[in-house]
Design a protein that fits this description.
268 residues; Neuraminidase
């Protein structure tokens, strides 16, 4: 069994992945089956796929799968990828080989429309999409049919989304900390009031909540009850420092992967 992390001991990364300097602005990051992971590159308008040894397998983002500023990314249980195509105001679905499957959403504020989508998480049979400018989370079925909205009238600028092991939705609000909802949209509570531009968001296998702070250039850690534990990182290009950590994911062995605008992914 993988033991809980001592986040107070996190300092320098054990590995850095940067595609030999060819990454642009890494954004979203997510793990699929067997340790395979994926990352969006918002400035190169593509998706990277890596194996469990952090070796690059492929990149894609052409044809039907063309992106304009891809952001959040998430796998479903079948190892299919859902990619937030930010400036096209849509979500695109692919298999793990990069084959285009479907898309949903177009610019607007109505049901099933998206405006400034940023974060995404797939959980069971639903897709949760954070929309910064619509100030809500829109929920879709896996077949792209619209389901419902969460947080309208409560959220001010949602970026990151994650689902906890007890089926609660966490939303990183850029201006107001972390909101917690039931999956049908009932408000539970808010924590992390002192966070500085919260964006990236995930949970580890023991329930700890990890939040990227864009203005403080760090990762803050909370326990499952929302109590602050520790933060690591600061602004800079040295190992263990960040510039706009906008994507966080946890591997099956509880390593923490953080995207960094210094054209790299740092692994802790």
């Amino acid at each position: 069994m993988v033991q809980p992390r001592d986040y107070k001991a996190v300092d320098k990364p054990k590995k850095i992945v940067n595609d030999d300097g060819n990454m642009g602005k890494p954004w979203g990051i997510a793990f699929g089956k067997d340790g395979v992971w994926a990352m969006t590159d918002s400035s190169n308008h593509c998706v990277y796929i890596f194996d469990s040894q952090d070796r690059l397998i492929r990149k894609f983002g052409t044809g039907n799968g063309l992106f304009y500023n891809p952001r959040g990314i998430s796998f479903d249980a079948n190892n299919c990828l859902y990619v937030v195509d930010g400036d096209n105001n849509r979500v695109q679905k692919f298999d793990v080989y990069g084959k285009y499957m479907l898309q949903f959403g177009h610019c607007g504020s109505g049901s099933g429309q998206l405006y400034d989508p940023i974060g995404i998480v797939v959980h069971n049979d639903k897709v949760f999409v954070a929309e910064g400018s619509n100030r809500r989370v829109s929920v879709f079925h896996l077949n792209a049919q619209f389901s419902h909205v969460i947080g309208s009238g409560q959220l001010s600028n949602p970026w990151g989304v994650a689902v906890t092991s007890n089926d609660q939705l966490l939303v990183a609000d850029f201006n107001s900390g972390i909101f917690r909802f039931t999956l049908d949209g009932t408000y539970v509570d808010t924590f992390g009031d002192g966070l500085s531009w919260a964006n990236a968001l995930t949970t580890d296998i023991h329930g700890f909540i990890l939040v990227g702070e864009q203005r403080s250039h760090c990762v803050s850690v909370f326990d499952k009850d929302g109590v602050f534990v520790h933060s690591f990182g600061s602004y800079g290009s040295a190992e263990g420092q960040f510039s706009c950590p906008r994507g966080i994911a946890v591997s099956p062995n509880n390593d923490v992967y953080v995207t960094d605008h210094y054209k790299r992914v740092q692994i802790f």
